[in-house]
């Protein structure tokens, strides 16, 4: 029996995880669930999985949750320390890290330091703290399995004993596929007017609002380039973004002998979730088998960096190193929030990020405290830029 903690149980990834787990009650038991504000949804999840612990974001949310599940054996807690506790408890084996944004860093790191099996959806945590996070995984013998569909596909296309040295495994390039999001073909001059709902209408995936906007700007792919760098040890020049609007090939690895290995499947996050949960075994995920004969043509082309300036900013941040990716991530979170709240336009997102990157000088990232200090500075600079645009 594998005991699981789900950080971010009420989100899109959290819901898909609960769906896969419910198909295999004899193999998995939910130890703890977390949510930030969606107390009713968390109560419903507690009712079906009966976890030992549930964590929410505030005392008020905890009181509401406790009232809703007073008849259950679940203990209710709140706050960041409680998140770290359920991620590192001796009573859990596996942690699904599915909180969105920088808020997921502390509990995901706590899971790494406790040597857990981590199913990583929360790419922002890795982008912010890359080296420190990977060091913690190694030092504490944690297992890190990628949930992001592209990274899960790359992981599946690499040799089993891959040691994060691409050259040693004969890897020439990592080919990171990207759908291009909802605005791939929209006239560039109309992008300034798009609404949050239009930006969140992804052609192939149903996801949380922050990652949906990131997909529309292609910052999501930029964060994934940085994520791939840390997960697979590949330098920026060895990671190539390929636009593939159908999202059937989830990414590829190109080898020095000319072979290209890919992972394909219907676009449904339950596949990478089931893969990582059962790894190295396989379990059913509820996803329909891919029928290639029903597939329209699969297309591939290079990204347009002028249409998607956020992708270029992310490559620059990866090459700059140190705290540059953390600054990029923090500024992006502020800009996306402001866009979702209609305080800035879509085309202002990259402007705000660029402003923050110009205003705050990046430096080395010797500790999490240093990263968080830079994160705070970038948020301040980005908020300033938002206010000046507003
Ligand atoms: P979502 O917005 O649907 O859910 C986010 C979850 O995080 C919710 O459970 C929410 O309660 C929790 N949360 C939000 N703010 C919090 C805070 N301040 N403190 C604690 N918890 C908080 O997001 P999602 O689409 O499920 O994405 C989750 C993560 O997975 C993101 O990092 C995203 O980039 C990544 N991811 C998602 C998908 C997808 O298909 N949805 C694919 C790949 C990667
Ligand atoms: Mg992805």
Protein topology:
Elements: E1 2-7, H1 12-22, E2 28-34, H2 39-49, E3 53-56, H3 59-68, E4 75-78, H4 80-88, E5 94-97, H5 105-113, E6 117-120, H6 123-139, E7 143-146, H7 149-157, E8 171-178, H8 196-199, H9 209-217, H10 219-232, E9 239-243, E10 249-255, E11 260-264, H11 270-278, H12 309-320, H13 324-340, H14 348-359, H15 368-389
Parallel strand pairs: 1-2, 1-5, 2-3, 3-4, 5-6, 6-7, 8-9
Antiparallel strand pairs: 8-10, 10-11
Catalytic activity: 2-C-methyl-D-erythritol 4-phosphate + NADP(+) = 1-deoxy-D-xylulose 5-phosphate + NADPH + H(+)
Binding site for NADPH: 10-13, 122, 124, 208
Domain 1-deoxy-D-xylulose 5-phosphate reductoisomerase C-terminal: 144-232
Task: Walk me through the structure.
By secondary structure, the protein is an alpha/beta fold. The chain folds into 3 domains: 2-146, Rossmann fold (3-Layer(aba) Sandwich), CATH 3.40.50; 154-294, no CATH class; 321-389, Orthogonal Bundle (Rna Polymerase Sigma Factor, Chain: A), CATH 1.10.1740.10. Helix content is 45%, strand content 15%. The chain has helices at 12-22, 39-49, 59-68, 80-88, 105-113, 123-139, 149-157, 196-199, 209-217, 219-232, 270-278, 309-320, 324-340, 348-359, 368-389, and strands at residues 2-7, 28-34, 53-56, 75-78, 94-97, 117-120, 143-146, 171-178, 239-243, 249-255, 260-264. The strands form 2 sheets. It has a 7-stranded parallel sheet, with helices on both faces. Helix 5 (105-113) packs parallel to helix 6. The structure holds nicotinamide-adenine-dinucleotide and magnesium ion. Nicotinamide-adenine-dinucleotide binds at residues 8-14, 35-36, 38, 57, 98-100, 103, 121-124, 148, 205, 207-208, 210-211, 269.
């Amino acid at each position: 029996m594998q005991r699981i903690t789900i950080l971010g149980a009420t989100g899109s990834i959290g819901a898909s995880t609960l769906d896969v787990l419910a198909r295999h009650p004899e193999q998995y038991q939910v130890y703890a669930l977390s949510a930030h504000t969606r107390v009713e949804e968390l109560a419903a999840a507690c009712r079906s999985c009966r976890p030992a612990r549930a964590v929410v974001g505030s005392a008020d949310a905890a009181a509401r949750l406790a009232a809703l599940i007073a008849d259950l054996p679940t203990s209710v807690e709140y706050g960041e320390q409680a998140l770290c506790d359920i991620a590192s408890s001796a009573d859990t084996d596996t942690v699904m890290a599915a909180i969105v944004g920088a808020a997921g860093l502390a509990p995901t790191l706590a899971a790494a330091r406790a040597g857990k099996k981590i199913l990583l959806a929360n790419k922002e945590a890795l982008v912010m703290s890359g080296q420190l996070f990977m060091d913690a995984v190694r030092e504490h013998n944690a297992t890190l399995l990628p949930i992001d569909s592209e990274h899960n596909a790359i992981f599946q296309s690499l040799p089993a004993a891959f040691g994060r040295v691409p050259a040693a495994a004969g890897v020439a390039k990592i080919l990171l596929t990207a759908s291009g999001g909802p605005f791939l073909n929209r006239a560039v001059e109309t992008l300034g007017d798009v609404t949050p709902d239009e930006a969140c209408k992804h052609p192939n995936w149903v996801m949380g609002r922050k990652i949906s906007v990131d997909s529309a700007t292609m910052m999501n792919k930029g964060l994934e380039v940085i994520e791939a760098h840390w997960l697979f040890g590949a330098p920026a020049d060895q990671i190539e973004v390929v636009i593939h609007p159908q999202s059937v090939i989830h990414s590829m690895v190109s080898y020095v002998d000319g072979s290209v290995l890919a992972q394909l499947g219907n676009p449904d996050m339950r596949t990478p979730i089931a893969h990582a949960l059962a790894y190295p075994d396989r379990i059913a995920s509820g996803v329909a088998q891919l029928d290639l004969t029903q597939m329209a043509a699969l297309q591939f082309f290079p990204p347009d960096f002028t249409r998607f300036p956020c992708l270029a900013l992310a490559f620059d941040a990866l090459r700059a190193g140190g705290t540059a990716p953390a600054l990029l991530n923090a500024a992006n979170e502020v800009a996306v929030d402001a866009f979702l709240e209609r305080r800035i336009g879509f085309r202002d997102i990259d402007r705000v990020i660029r402003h923050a990157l110009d205003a705050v000088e990046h430096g080395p990232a010797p500790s999490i405290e240093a990263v968080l200090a830079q994160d705070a500075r970038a948020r301040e600079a980005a908020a300033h830029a938002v206010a000046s645009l507003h």
